[in-house]
Amino acid sequence: MPTALRRRAALCLPLLNWGCAPTPLAPFAAPAFNPPHQGGRLWRADPTASVLRIVAFRGGAAARLGHHHILQAARFHAQLWLPESGLAGAQGELTVRLDELELDRPDWRAAAGGEFNEKPLDAEAIAATHRNLLRALNADAHPEVSLHLRQLGGATPWWTAEVDLRLNGQIQTYRMPLAVEQGAERLRLQGRLLLRHSDHGLQAFSLLGGLLAVQDAVVLEWDLTLIAARR
């Protein structure tokens, strides 16, 4: 690739994983989390003992000029209410602010290994990518991403969940398995799901006739530790 094109590409790389044009959508009024005061058990997530991660992938014919990205939430809110009688009727929610997502810490990339660890990212590139992420996801208008539990089934250590995910003011329903470790005072939930920009009214960005592009799909992954609440 000519030097001039490489320089132009380098300037645009921070945009690639999140350079999307949001489609205006009506606001979504999320259902209130209001579990019964009697019976059952309430669990609240401990963010310091949990991981909530988004992984985005470079794309296009010149993808190797770009980077994959790892985003994690240092702070988020999550809680789950389980009835005494079983999983039917369970209620739960998880909410994270987009502007509180951290991006591409060197230790995360080193732990991931492979292509995530092949090229370092400097602080300036990370900051530019973070700004472009917030702009692309229309974070000023829709600053939060949230999951709301619709249905829980299965049996420990394998649960099945149906959730509504709200992103960019648009809601989509997903079904997923969960790996579960349940103790007397601690509950661990592990799972992941595949999201697409296009499913939430976002158009993946491309540049130079598609030579550089972002993949439509991203992975949402979590390893949540929840503590039994006292109430």
Reconstruct the topology from this structure:
Elements: H1 3-12, E1 21-22, E2 41-45, E3 51-59, E4 69-73, E5 77-82, E6 91-97, E7 101-103, H2 106-112, H3 123-136, E8 144-155, E9 158-167, E10 170-182, E11 186-196, E12 202-203, E13 206-207, E14 212-228
Keywords: Signal
InterPro entries: TTHA0802/YceI-like_sf (IPR036761)
Organism: Inhella inkyongensis
CATH A-level architecture: Beta Barrel
Major β-sheet, in short? 8 strands, antiparallel, barrel
CATH fold name, please? Lipocalin
The ordered H/E elements are HEEEEEEEHHEEEEEEE
User: What is the radius of gyration computed over CA atoms, rounded to a whole number of angstroms?
Assistant: 19 Å
Mean pLDDT: 82
| Low-confidence residue ranges | 1-30
